[in-house]
Design brief:
The chain is of the alpha+beta class and 536 residues long. It is built from 18 helices and 21 strands. Strand 16 and strand 17 (476-480) form a beta hairpin. The longest helix has 21 residues, at 292-312.
């Protein structure tokens, strides 16, 4: 990768970071530092990713935890591997039962959206296949942070307060007693800079380390989860956990202006990024990034891609539409032809004619990891298993109760998933991992940082700093305040319903590590959160 500062310059909020021997980029400095320490102790990029991911469950519990799901793209010794750590719906949960309770969609709180957590299985599978250090050694730094405490980061504190208010209005301590005991022991969310500890989570992490995550699926932790679920009206049982293991899958890809962009296959929606790139590949976007035409085409391509993936992406065993059909050049051309001078209302085509943490790592041997894990919506379901520190995700809320849809809720099924790690290559060689967390902002953020990199020559930090858009629904879009005013006005004249927002956290949080043409590492971290690049 070579950066063309002559081609485009954007006033970066911080400098790009360079390193030779190793790099870790993520949303919380303590987690990045843990990953760097693992590299210095002889671990590789995979070891560093696992240790960083485990630490994030402690220092950023608002967005992920032991009860999360995960996806990863791992470049190891010349090949890219995909790891799907998303769980399945409990066998006892049926759409008929939710409909009988009066629900028209899967609730976002309580036991209904809880699925088998896959993140710790993903850690174990990655470690067994590619890791160098002992698994317990990788989880011990996270356990120490949980036991001894850590000062809460500013943006984490902001999200924590938001979730405290949500659970309070959603039933309070009477409904979520264990969440309050674990994450609000003082009767409130912790303040920024306040020390927070969770000894129960420390013990859980050490048990996971000692058993290579087996305890959560086929041991003592699994029994605790199952017993609590049965006692409190949940559907998750020991048999659901016992059958689960994270799966190795083949990544999918698309070519864009001389580069190969890799994503995870369904049930993740990385396919959205590839479909949008296919549509945009037929355009020359020119040299000027801050132009109305560039924004309009990016927005329209993303809307069309999203309309398709929200319709067709599901557990791959239940998809009636083939990925290769959705990625076919002829289909991309037919979708591109729909883009005119006015904003459109995107509908699915016919290809036949929360919250989240992201991290990336790299070592001096050429290994690189793109890793993402998520509760879906901040603390997820609000269900916390007493005495363990395990908060369970609410990913099942992505299912539909419409039986005509591929993503229809069924026992033992994986749901449509919003978390997507990305990986960039050129001429068969790795450029590096990238990702932008933030639920349905993720494909949109990825698309923008990719175009910033490939079309506009930005370095990783510039690509993350540049102002962003987000399509919401219909013709409604959000723009950051950094988008020039004349572009916002011209987009409105083209039929876009424009809202300029002040809260930067709504626009996703990304991390990037590229390998330069000089075989150095270049990293960027999200300025909209507490992001950090640790380098060696």
């Amino acid at each position: 990768m070579k950066f063309d500062s002559q081609k485009y310059q954007y006033p970066s909020r911080r400098s790009v970071t360079f390193a030779k021997n190793g790099m870790v980029a993520t949303s919380c400095p303590p987690a990045a530092q843990v990953g760097l320490e693992i590299l210095k102790k002889g671990g590789n990029a995979i070891d560093a990713a696992i240790a960083t991911a485990a630490t994030l469950t402690v220092v950023e519990p608002t967005c992920n935890g032991i009860g999360s799901d995960a996806f990863a793209l791992i470049w190891y010794q010349g090949r890219l591997y995909g790891l799907n750590g998303s769980g399945r719906a409990p066998r006892l949960l049926t759409p008929e039962e939710l409909l009988a309770q009066g629900h028209t969609s899967v609730p976002t709180m309580g036991w209904a959206p809880v699925m088998v957590p896959g993140v710790t299985s993903a850690w174990a599978e990655a470690s067994k296949r590619f890791g160098r250090l002992e698994f317990a050694q990788l989880l011990e730094p996270a356990a120490r942070y949980a036991e001894e405490g850590y000062p809460v980061a500013p943006n984490v504190a902001k999200l924590w307060e938001k979730e405290f208010e949500k659970f309070t209005s959603g039933g309070g301590r009477e409904r979520f007693a264990s969440w309050y005991d674990t994450f609000a022991p003082k009767g409130r969310a912790p303040h920024a800079g306040e020390l927070f500890s969770c000894p129960e989570l420390a013990a859980t992490l050490r048990e996971l380390g000692a058993t290579c995550s087996e305890s959560l699926y086929r041991g003592a932790l699994a029994q605790k989860i199952s017993a609590f679920s049965e006692a409190t009206g949940g559907w998750l049982r020991a048999a659901d956990l016992e059958d689960y293991r994270a799966e190795w899958v083949e990544p999918i890809s698309a070519e864009y202006h001389g580069y190969e962009v890799f994503e995870m296959p369904p049930n993740g929606h990385g396919l959205t990024v590839l479909m949008a790139l296919n549509i945009l590949s037929g355009y020359d976007l020119g040299r000027e990034r801050e132009s109305t035409t560039v924004y309009h085409r990016m927005i329209e391509a993303m809307k069309l891609a999203y309309a398709d993936t929200k319709e067709y992406v599901a557990d791959p065993q239940f998809m009636r539409t083939r990925v290769e059909d959705l990625l076919h050049p002829d289909y991309a051309a037919s979708r591109r032809a729909l883009i005119g001078e006015q904003a459109l209302l995107a509908q699915p085509g016919s290809p036949y004619s929360g919250d989240t943490v992201y991290l990336c790592t790299a070592d001096g041997e050429g290994n690189m990891v793109s890793w993402i894990q998520s509760n879906y919506q901040e603390f997820g379901s609000g269900i916390v298993v007493p005495g363990t520190g395990i908060s369970l995700q609410n990913r099942g809320a992505n299912f539909t109760l419409d039986p005509t849809k591929d993503n229809y809720l069924q026992p033992g099924k994986k749901s449509y998933h919003t978390i997507i790690p990305g990986f960039l290559c050129k001429d068969g060689r790795p450029v590096g991992p990238f990702g932008v967390m933030g639920a349905f902002m993720q494909p949109q953020g990825q698309l923008q940082v990719l175009l910033n990199t490939i079309d506009f020559g930005m370095n990783p930090q510039e690509a993350l700093d540049a102002p962003r858009f987000q399509w919401i629904e219909g013709k409604k879009i959000q723009l950051e305040q950094g988008v020039p005013a004349h572009i916002a006005q011209e987009l409105a004249a083209m039929g876009h319903e424009v809202e300029v927002i002040e809260d930067p956290l709504l626009m996703g949080r990304g991390e990037i590590i590229w390998r330069t043409d000089e075989e150095m590492l270049a990293g960027g971290s999200e300025p909209r959160c507490d992001g950090h690049v640790a380098s060696w």
